[in-house]
Amino acid sequence: MNRSSWSYPVSGWVVAALLSGAVLAQPGGPVAAQPTPVRADAPLPAELRYVPADAALFLHADAHALWTGELAKSFRTANKDLFDRAENAGKAFGGSPKDLKAVALFVPKIKGPGDDERLGIVLTFDKPLDKDKFTTAVKGLFPDDAKVKVLTPSDTLAVVLVGLGVEYAKPQPAGADGPLTAAIRAASSGKHMLVAGATLANLSDELQKDDLPAQLRPLQPILKAEAITATVTLGATLDLAVRVRTKREALAGDAEKALALLVRLIADECDRTISNAEKEAGMKDVVTVFKAGLAATKGAKLSVDGTEARLSASLPLGDLPLAPAYRAVGTRVTAAPSPKSANNLKQIGLAMHAYHDANNSFPAAAICDKKGKPLLSWRVAVLPYLEQADVYEQFKLDEPWDSEHNKKLLANMPSTYALPGSKPGSTETHYRAFVGNGAAFDWAKGHKILDISDGASNTLMVATAAHGVPWTKPDELEFDPQKDMSALITLVGGRAQMVMCDGSIRTLKKLPSKETLNALITKDGNEIIGNDF
Known about the structure:
alpha+beta, four-stranded antiparallel beta sheet, 16 helices, DUF1559, signal
């Protein structure tokens, strides 16, 4: 499938990864480099002692290097105000970002509903903390602070547990071994800006099943591996290395092929991103940076060593115009119209994904009766995930939206569903989903994100409809692939806004063609999307 889009988070994620370190990696730079040697019996830094060696996800960041390094200085020049605000925000936590030494984050497992919201964060500081101020500030970040435990075993160490039991409140047994031992030891070397890893067996079982969407099946050797570990190392170049540890030597070759396919897919998508960026005014520096990232992606080295498949890539920083490119992207985002509507769509996307996490699927387009008759909109179903559980509990879910009881609740419409500029007291919403004929939603059945084989970032979730409807009414946009659906969508602030199934917000200067829009609406049509998106 050739889906073209001008979206920095999606199309250029590898470039962004090489520039910001938002990837998984294992020690090393180019493929010939060897892991930084660390004695197995060497004591771990304080923040790493709490990380389970079989955690589903693990990330370690050299916070000091990220905040004070040359790369940070470049971005500080581009956006001094952002860094100044971060400095001021740090005061509420009893310190400053520059006092933060290192951060380790871990998620023990992601097997059932809510598991991805249970995590541990361990921070070390160069200077003593104001423990009371830090505890108060951290708890204020979470809606349910009762689920948050903040421990300060020393003046320079803080352990934050979100939804986790007391067994995570103390260091792991010394010498504990597991799939992430290599990643944890790499982090302890102090040589890498970022180190991360994943224990595949502790991720969702669906990732290791054989009935994956067609697009993901070639990646099965990676998804069925024991562990993925990685590092990002910063110097004159930014070096990325990834290692996939398989269960047997015979499987490592398959994992290498899967990594090679992933590299090709990323390179193709990045190439299309550059093509689209070249059509935009003021994107010259962005194009330069992305081209360098594309070259690094195409130059990635692959190899097999025993049970491991390895990938490495290196991006020479040199004279790359990082700060101007950052400013250009920031200006483009800042110039986007109707930030209130975009935020509404963002909150809807987050609520949809929270629903998916709790129920293992997105909601159906409607809450239906036993015969499949739509009673209430999906907008009612996701209320608990918009911090509107009290409103949700007032509905009679076995009655239609306009029953004597439910109709009274129209007045309780959350502000998230109100289009900016609507009349005060209006109970109509313009945020509606496309339904049926292969769209992301069906009336009576909710789909899993893995059902979206066209890619969640390329499939429309909710659009800003031309006509408003009572917000509780199950009245959505019926998808007809034979018709032009653009007439059903309105412009907000002169732009078309929509939220995609991955939760990203898209703002377009004009509505795309019939063919492109229809391709975006389908979840598994395998269509080619035109350059007008």
